[in-house]
Amino acid sequence: MLKTKKIPNTYVIIFSIIIIAASLTWFIPGGHFDRETVILPSGDEKEVIIPESFQFTENQPQTWQVFSALYDAFVDKEKAAIIIFILLIGGAFWIMNDSKAIDVAILSFLKRTRKLERYRFFRKLGVNNIIMTLIMLMFSVFGAVFGMSEETIAFIIIFVPLAISMGYDSIVGVSLCFVAAGLGFAGAMLNPFTIGIAQGLSSIPLFSGIEYRFFCWLIINFIGIGFVIRYAIRIKGKPQKSLVYQNDQYWREQTMEKTSEIKYFTKPAAWITFCTVFTGFLAFSIIYPSSILTLGNDSLELPIIPILTGLFAISSIFFLLKSSHYFVFNLLIFTILFLIVGVMGYEWYIREIATLFFVMGIASGFAMSNSPSRISVLFLEGVKDIIPAALIVGLAGGIIIILNNGNITDTLLYYASESMNNIGKVGSVGVMYIIQTFINIIIPSGSAKAALTMPIMAPFSDLIGISRQATVMAFQFGDGFTNMITPTSGVLIAVLGVAKIPYEKWVKWIVPLMIILMVLGFLLLIPTVLIPLNGF
Length: 536
Known about the structure:
Elements: H1 10-27, E1 30-32, E2 35-39, E3 45-49, E4 55-57, H2 65-75, H3 77-98, H4 101-115, H5 120-125, H6 127-146, H7 152-165, H8 170-186, H9 192-201, H10 210-237, H11 249-252, H12 268-287, E5 291-295, E6 298-302, H13 304-320, H14 324-346, H15 350-367, H16 372-405, H17 409-418, H18 425-442, H19 446-463, H20 468-480, H21 490-499, H22 503-530
Antiparallel strand pairs: 1-4, 2-3, 5-6
Helix pairs in contact: 1-16, 2-16, 3-15, 3-16, 3-21, 4-7, 4-14, 6-8, 6-10, 7-8, 7-21, 8-10, 8-20, 8-21, 9-19, 9-20, 10-22, 12-13, 12-15, 13-14, 14-15, 15-16, 16-21, 17-18, 18-19, 18-20, 18-22, 19-20, 20-22
């Protein structure tokens, strides 16, 4: 019998890419674009490339730096933020998981959804299929409207156990939030961090062309969600066919069989925790009686914090009368709701979100009558469990560090932009798409890539007779799809680390979907140069 070849460990794969990047710094000449700071329509400042300012310079061949790349990535401001975010989230959720609140909530949810199978309509469509579709559409909207990305890391610990409890695997759990947000991100309609910046730098009206982008969003989600549902149905029938069946043993050991052993109770500590948290919410309601929630280019003023405070009081009292477990899960629900309000109304990012979940973890521990020492031990256990994910994020960040230190990042951008001459409109928009896809491997940040590439691509599209809106679409698709597979994406690596999915197994699963989406992206770009569309 032939011996199957073992796939290298994720750390080995990423370190190999670092070595390849270092090798490129020996053969590719150095280069530099001049940059200037511009004011976007939103009022934010962005550093952009000055077209036709490229100059070749000396490269800086990287040698021993491949070994210091991990350190350099850890101290890099952007990567350090994600790493600390992962550690705080891991510690906070470990405290919550110790309470079994999520297990209790999932069991209750599954019992209620199974009752729907009594109805022929739901039984025919499949209750689980409906639930997964609705969850994915919700996260896709989040990705399309406010660019949800890093936030999905916190949801992995909820949806992976849910998916496994429903008879699926961790890949389905990751797909429910991360892949769904990625589909929305690629088909973005109102994302201010990608579409807003790209259109602002291209000097076209913000969020114009939304009609066709909405059509693209529908098609992308139909294909993407259909792919996930089809896979989920196959795994439901034969769980052993899952690529991560062995890896998911970690999650299966913590699930629903243990809930029968749970003793339901509500101790005074839970009521004290409720009063403390509710007092804090009241204080915020007084300080922020009204909030302006921004949705794309529109905004709505609502007394959302007082409303959530009232709902929290009513629901918490109801759940406390049942058990502390339900109250702890209610804390999680309102943490997520306040996360959404913070992102849409107060421009929250990783720092604020990490703090929010950290407080949630501490409150969960006290609600279950844990001592401060016990909470500290649980937090450190969670950090210990999540450290591999943080290390992988740092290692993946080393790829970008090597390219930047080798002084070849701008050269790669220059070569890419020079490859679009004399190939026709469809060919040109296709090459733009390929270039943006390639650059996304080097620069996973959508806003940073927009600032770097659009000042070059937009004027170039004028020269070859392509609308700047089509160029923005090429950027949008090129920026969106590969976020779900590129090893330089700190968010992807963090998500897989939390879900305990080896990167090589994830690649094997998602490559077919990537091929479908990449081809679909090109097909959706063709009408932007051949058919008169509103806003193009």
